[in-house]
Amino acid sequence: MTAVRRQSRRVAELVRFGVSGAPASMTLLVVIWVLGAATSSLTGPSGYVERHFAASVPALEQGRVWTLLTSGLWAPSLAGYLAATLMVLVVAAPVEHRIGSSRFVAAAASTQVCGTLFALGLAALVRTVDETWGFRLHIGTAVSPTTWIIGSAMVAAAGMTTLWRRRVRVGGLALLLTLALFSGHLIDLVRLGAAVAGLVIGPWIVTRSARGTHLAGTRREGRVLVALVVAAGAIGPVLAALSPHAVGPLAVLRELFRGVPWTPAEVRELCATDATALDCRRGLLELRLGGVGPTILSVMPSLFLLVLADGLRRGRRFAWIAAVAAQVVLLALSVVDFGIRYAGFADEQTLFYGLDSPNVYRTATPFLVPIAILLLLLATRRWFTVTAPRSVIRTLWVRIAALVAGVGVAYVALGMLARGGFDREPNLASLAADYPQRLVPPVYLQWLDPRFLPDSAPTTLLYEWTGVLVWAVLCVSVAATFLAPAHGERSDDTERARTLLTTGTGSPLSWMTTWRGNRYWFAPDGRSYVAYRVIAGVALTTGDPVGPPESLRANVTGFADFATANGWTPCFYSVTGNLKQATDAMGWTAIQVAEETVLRLDRLQFTGKKFQDVRTALNRAAKSGVTAEWIRFPDAPLSLTDQITAISEEWVADKGMPEMGFTLGGIDEIDDPQVRCLIAVDEARTVHGVTSWMPVYRDGRIVGWTLDFMRRRSEGFRPAMEFLIASAAQSLKEEGAEFVSLSGAPLATVQNDAGPADDDPQPRDQVTLAVLLDRLLDVLGRTLEPVYGFRSLLAFKAKFQPDYVPMYMTFADPAALPSIGNAVGRAYLPEVSVGQGMRLVRTMIRSR
């Protein structure tokens, strides 16, 4: 209840915040109600309003151009007035407060006019290809304030943060396009036109915000946007099916839920006279489609797609496969539809989808939605790699099999007990044969003559609700698998690795071995493992082997033998000095690739001149009302997680390059119950910065924490990072932690000109190679500095006076260095496009 009250207060504050600085919105709202009352149009536009102020094709043809504007000052019904009032308070007023009254008026007027012109022009075009829909648009009228509200929101989106700009645009356009294609009224086209106009002219009215190079800046946000599109495609048929007045080109389901004019007995009487008569076939179809149960069963596939959309949002591979299969099935049904209604696969009196006057255009249009969604899913398949543990999937299939079998037995048994309640008394075999049909939405059964129909309340309940029960349990069961913990493509191996890490000993970077993208080699004794990924024939590890310290040499040798046996070049990356000593003894080459910074908490004191910046950050936070708060991202309220995601997306967009991975975590990596996040929030619960901390284990207990994720709001509390790191160190010291690691920055090291020691155990040619490689990495680090700022990050961490611990890359074969360098680059940036590569080169050239 506390959370509900807090959210209610936030909504109320948002409304007050918007209304207080929105004179234009409030004035328009008053005008709308006054005009509605003055023209007796509060329950619907009067004839006078429709003739003189509503937008329509005839009005424009007759020169009433003012209707392009005035159509936004009336609503179609009392519910429309109430909805417009709510949208003004929640959308229009905050938009005006954000972009200013003059810009808001320009946005509202321009999108209203442009959107209406777009709709009227499209109506004229549609009439040339679809006479039925075009005629409805031609005689239709449109009045609604929602057009300029939606248009102004799209204009304002141009200045929003990257995350919300993408979500508003993709979600809004998907919903409006769905309404236009399925509902298909003139006002639906006007809303879509206003949104498109706002999308186009938005950057010219408001300041354009930072933009990423992709529609989806990170894999996580890409999944959200794909899920939104799939959800819109699922909702569209339901909207059309439940709307008795749907006229859009995809409203092929609008007649599925008609009232049933006949009883089973009357239909049997009709069919007894002539089983092939149109009335007989129509009566049988309507008996199947009538009632609450068949109505719900008909929309269950759409509900299942919504469940899959949630799985897509979570990156689940099972959801992607099921969604692809669903779109293939829908495409196949569209092909059958086309064949029956146009190509003559069936007789002329078919009732498929109930359309009386099919044409090529209307039968071909339904192909577009499943094809578009299918292409989108195939193009983004690499984003959906998360699989649930095998035990979860195995349980799902067992549960589904038991459900189908158990409900089938119950259907047959109950049917035999109540067989007198059917118009034709069934036997055991006919009930068993009829059971699969009860699981299929009724519209797909119209070619089959029903063996029997229910004629009593108990048999009607059994006949109509059996399929609903199975589909409902299926949806719940599949949704449950999406909630099961999953950590990558091989969740079972990841769970095993997590268990070994949390009960054993690891290095400060060992928690990175549990991240998605890693594969695992387990030692023969089952007490140790190595996390690695194979790229371009190189088995590149993530940190040291995890396991007992005394097994380090054996684990290195075992993994090297394993990699060599598979034809891979072994390379240990971001490893400690202990592992370097082991590989030095084996004759391997080692170079330093990063510098880990460690704060020993037993001697932590932010005193003296060296910590002046840290103390300033703590003092400024106290004066500004900014506090540090520990959260777990998976359990945090949406109001906080959305802000954190928005901050991260904006950071990625500013870079113009994809977020780096491998040893650098992002939102996916902090979405872990074992990882702690420390956020900087003010009194209004605005998040100004966030850091994530990974546990470090020794002998099964946490002895330290490693910093990973660091993001700061671009316009927020500036010393947020200094404040958060200092606060984390103080808090973790009180909890009994021994140290905190500020992690390492790739390609950034503390300068050391001493050169290799005389007693370096490596051969002279390998020492020379190491020097050359070190110089090459130094050049590469300086070149990439303008883009990713690793050296600036290392300099920032120096404010905390840490201990510096070198991190190395070791490999056995110096001749494989080009392949190793390629593998490391692809590990950090696996999804760099050609355009991003060119942008990276331009940035590096300009920086020089």
UniProtKB/TrEMBL annotation:
Q: Known Pfam families for this protein?
A: LPG_synthase_C
Question: Residue ranges of the Phosphatidylglycerol lysyltransferase C-terminal domain?
Answer: 499-810
Q: Which domain of life is it from?
A: Bacteria
Ranges annotated as spanning the membrane: 14-35, 73-92, 104-126, 146-163, 170-187, 193-210, 222-242, 291-309, 318-344, 364-384, 396-418, 468-486
User: Entry's InterPro entries?
Assistant: Acyl_CoA_acyltransferase, LPG_synthase_C, PG_lysyltransferase, Rhomboid-like_sf
Q: Report the SUPFAM superfamilies cross-referenced here.
A: Acyl-CoA N-acyltransferases (Nat), Rhomboid-like
Alphabetically list the UniProt keywords: Cell membrane, Membrane, Transmembrane, Transmembrane helix
Subcellular localization is given as: Cell membrane
Membrane topology classification: Multi-pass membrane protein
What residue stretch is flagged as signal peptide? none
Q: Quote the protein name from its UniProt record.
A: Bifunctional lysylphosphatidylglycerol flippase/synthetase MprF
Organism (species): Rhodococcus gannanensis
